[in-house]
């Protein structure tokens, strides 16, 4: 039996170890270093701290490398990143054995959360330079991700108002005590008097409750979380949780994410054009065709996309599917009403006219429609077969009806039906990577600005993971 290999803790090295030799040539840490070193951080708006006194600050490129490598390896907690800088060879190598503490890492994230959006664009530009991104077919989709705040602490208006009243009463007593102390200090000339901590905390608490009540006033929410009023209850498969709606656009050719955003609206039907606008901002153009599921169907969005000459294919909405059911048996189905453009009216199956009544704005997306109203419903013998409304039959016609009809006709073509079928193959893998490979199923930061920054980091990580394989093969170089 040969001699077993054991650690020799008393071994003395003739030459000092070289940090450069600690990781392999194709190690992801080298890829992260090359990517960050290729960036002009000041141009991206990432703060470069400068201090003439005290301990020198950690360089922003070092902290950025730590964050990117951490996300690359599913390490997102600042304390775990701090620990990793002492134990993980990749992080030890990246930092050159300079281990930043969790406070330094968090301050960097907080100071640069808006600049991290530019970092996501840089990952796209690297792919563009390497000719990896195609502009033939893109897919748009969204996924609900649970907020860091607890569902249990969300409160309704009545509870918040009682809480506000209680906080205000305690704050008034604290202010009265503070004023008495200030007057006493003034008389006795004892010097500076600072606002008590209890009063500072009370003011912050009162402000958060007022913001939560304002959020209720400006939305259709029934309850909000006082510490995170922007989060909304959204349906996540079988449950409804405080969440944010994370949006993404993926490229068919490369699988890369080419646009990303986070919104507080639980519905997707107002996000199509905004996401395509972001694609154009990032790539300089949109794909020839952009596919989305029926949740993105909106007359206003389809009309706006047509005006901007965006190629879109949207699956049938639930409203369309319901409307199509029973069309053959229903003698007064919407499809049986004929629009007379010259007279600007609809003609019902009985030959009666439904003239123009008014313009109306529907829904959160402010879809504008022209409403037509039957004037003869009181004398019509079939009025109750036609409509259950006591006011008679109403028909809404979108101001973008021509664009809607063109889209429906386009959607029925066989080649476009096949494109719609490819939607899941394009957009679902990035979401699967995010939730399974990166184990990211819940935000670890609170507030819409922090959440947007984290989503950009996540999407940047997905892109870097794909670009890494091209870097190893020599297709991507940072020069």
TrEMBL record:
Name of the protein described by the UniProt record: Transposase
Domain Transposase InsH N-terminal: 18-110
Keywords from the UniProt entry: Coiled coil
Superkingdom assignment: Bacteria
Pfam families (UniProt xref): DDE_Tnp_1_6, DUF772
Transposase DDE domain residues: 347-467
InterPro entries per the UniProt record, alphabetical: IS1182_transpos, Tnp_DDE_dom, Transposase_InsH_N
Coiled coil: 168-219
């Amino acid at each position: 039996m040969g001699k077993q290999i054991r650690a020799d803790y008393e071994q003395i090295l003739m030459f000092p170890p070289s940090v450069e030799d600690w990781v392999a040539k194709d190690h992801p840490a080298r890829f992260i270093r090359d990517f960050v070193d290729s960036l002009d951080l000041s141009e991206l708006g990432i703060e470069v701290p400068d201090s003439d006194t005290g301990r020198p600050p950690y360089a922003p490129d070092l902290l950025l490398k730590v964050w990117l490598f951490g996300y690359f390896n599913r390490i997102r907690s600042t304390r775990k990143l701090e620990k990793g800088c002492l134990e993980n060879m990749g992080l030890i190598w990246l930092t050159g054995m300079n281990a930043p503490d969790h406070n330094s890492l968090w301050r960097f994230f907080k100071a640069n959360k808006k600049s991290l959006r530019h970092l996501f664009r840089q990952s796209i530009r690297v792919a563009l330079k390497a000719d990896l991104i195609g502009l033939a077919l893109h897919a748009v989709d969204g996924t609900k991700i649970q907020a860091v705040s607890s569902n249990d602490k969300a409160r309704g208006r009545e509870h918040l108002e009682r809480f506000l009243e209680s906080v205000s009463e305690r704050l008034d007593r604290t202010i009265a005590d503070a004023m008495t102390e200030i007057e006493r200090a003034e008389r006795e000339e004892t010097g500076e008097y600072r606002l008590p901590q209890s009063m500072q905390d009370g003011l912050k608490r009162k402000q958060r409750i007022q913001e939560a009540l304002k959020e209720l006033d400006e939305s259709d929410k029934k309850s909000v979380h006082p510490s995170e009023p922007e989060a909304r209850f959204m349906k996540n498969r079988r449950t409804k949780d405080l969440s944010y709606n994370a949006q993404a656009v993926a490229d068919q050719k490369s699988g890369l994410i080419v646009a990303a955003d986070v919104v507080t609206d639980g519905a997707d039907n107002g996000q199509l054009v905004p996401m395509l606008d972001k694609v154009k901002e990032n790539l300089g153009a949109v794909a020839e065709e952009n596919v989305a599921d029926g949740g993105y169907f909106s007359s206003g969005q389809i009309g706006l996309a047509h005006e901007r000459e965006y190629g879109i294919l949207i699956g049938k909405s639930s409203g369309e599917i319901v409307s199509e059911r029973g069309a053959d048996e229903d003698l007064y189905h919407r499809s049986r009403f004929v629009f007379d453009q010259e007279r600007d009216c609809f003609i019902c199956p009985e030959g009666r006219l439904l003239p123009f009544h008014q313009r109306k704005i529907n829904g959160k997306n402010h879809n504008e429609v022209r409403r037509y109203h039957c004037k003869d419903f009181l004398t019509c013998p079939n009025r109750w077969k036609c409509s259950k409304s006591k006011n008679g039959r109403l028909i809404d016609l979108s101001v973008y009806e021509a664009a809607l009809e063109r889209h429906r006709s386009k959607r029925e073509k066989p080649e476009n039906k096949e494109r719609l079928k490819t939607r899941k193959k394009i957009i679902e893998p990035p979401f699967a990577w995010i939730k399974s490979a990166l184990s990211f199923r819940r935000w670890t930061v609170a507030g819409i600005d922090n959440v947007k920054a984290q989503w950009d980091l996540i999407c940047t990580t997905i892109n870097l993971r794909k670009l890494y394989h091209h870097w190893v093969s020599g297709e991507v170089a940072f020069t």
